[in-house]
User: Which sequence fits this backbone?
């Protein structure tokens, strides 16, 4: 793997910056959201220093097609306004449909890959591929206000029972189970590292004591909870978790195994069916290609 000047990986909040897995992983940049002027100055400085910027933000919506909550919408609008005012084609704005801790984990993976010999276009378009291999969920003390994952009326009713706890998987395939039942959360069939964030009122230590061994994770890291987690999951009684690939050589192999194309609009390299910078599809005449189905990486891969 070769190295180049790292493309800047930006997030919208400091609590979305996970500690690096190694000394080579560069830090993430927090894009200022306080004022438009601050956002413009911050983004301009990033472009001058790094050349290209990949900014991640939440693009989540309920399964019923409801729009994002106001804070998510305003953040997205601010980022698009900044790119429009700067008239820059070197800013990739990626709306990620993952819970907050899942976005933080994806940003960490992109940070790891940013020092490799991938072009900015390949790095940006790899986000959709990498996100498909992130198992993001939470242990919840209540699902009465959960609107990000489909919840049955039966589960809603059971959530009112004293002591009821629910394990929820939002990605890659939504799933909800009540603790104490035979059904278990479907885990990854490849080696992962688990990141855990306890909310202000964690229901229990089930994630570290039961889920982590069941998923045979290769390590557990505890981090502070993102500020948006309680709102995203609809309760403060939660333990959010995200499991994903953590070895840079495995991440590199995954991304480099995908055929590279050239964007017909901005002429940057890309993988998959859409450019990460200009959002143009691979070909005007070609139909959209659905996201890749999960390919099982060996659990012991490192």
Assistant:
């Amino acid at each position: 793997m070769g190295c180049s000047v790292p493309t800047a990986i930006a997030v919208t909040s400091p609590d979305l910056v996970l500690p690096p897995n190694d000394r080579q992983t560069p830090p993430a940049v927090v894009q200022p959201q306080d004022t438009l002027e601050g956002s413009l100055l911050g983004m301009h400085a990033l472009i001058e220093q790094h050349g290209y910027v990949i900014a991640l933000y939440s693009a989540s919506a309920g399964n019923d097609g409801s729009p994002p909550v106001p804070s998510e919408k305003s953040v997205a609008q601010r980022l698009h306004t900044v790119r429009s005012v700067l008239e820059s084609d070197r800013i990739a704005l990626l709306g990620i449909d993952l819970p907050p801790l899942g976005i933080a984990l994806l940003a960490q993976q992109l940070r790891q890959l940013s020092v490799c010999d991938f072009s900015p276009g390949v790095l940006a378009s790899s986000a959709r591929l990498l996100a498909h291999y992130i198992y993001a969920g939470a242990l919840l003390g209540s699902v009465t206000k959960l609107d990000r994952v489909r919840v049955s009326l039966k589960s809603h009713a059971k959530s009112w029972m004293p002591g009821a706890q629910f394990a929820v998987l939002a990605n890659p395939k939504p799933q909800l189970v009540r603790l104490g039942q035979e059904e278990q959360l479907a885990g990854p069939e490849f080696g992962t590292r688990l990141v855990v964030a306890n909310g202000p009122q964690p229901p229990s230590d089930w994630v570290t004591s039961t889920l982590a061994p069941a998923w045979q994770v290769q390590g557990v890291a505890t981090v502070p909870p993102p500020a948006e987690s309680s709102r995203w999951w609809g309760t403060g009684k939660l333990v959010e978790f995200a499991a994903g690939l953590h070895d840079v050589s495995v991440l590199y192999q995954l991304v480099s195994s995908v055929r590279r194309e050239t964007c017909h609009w901005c002429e940057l390299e890309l993988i998959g069916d859409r450019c990460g910078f200009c959002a143009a599809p691979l070909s005007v005449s070609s139909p959209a290609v659905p996201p890749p189905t999960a390919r099982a990486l060996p659990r012991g891969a490192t």
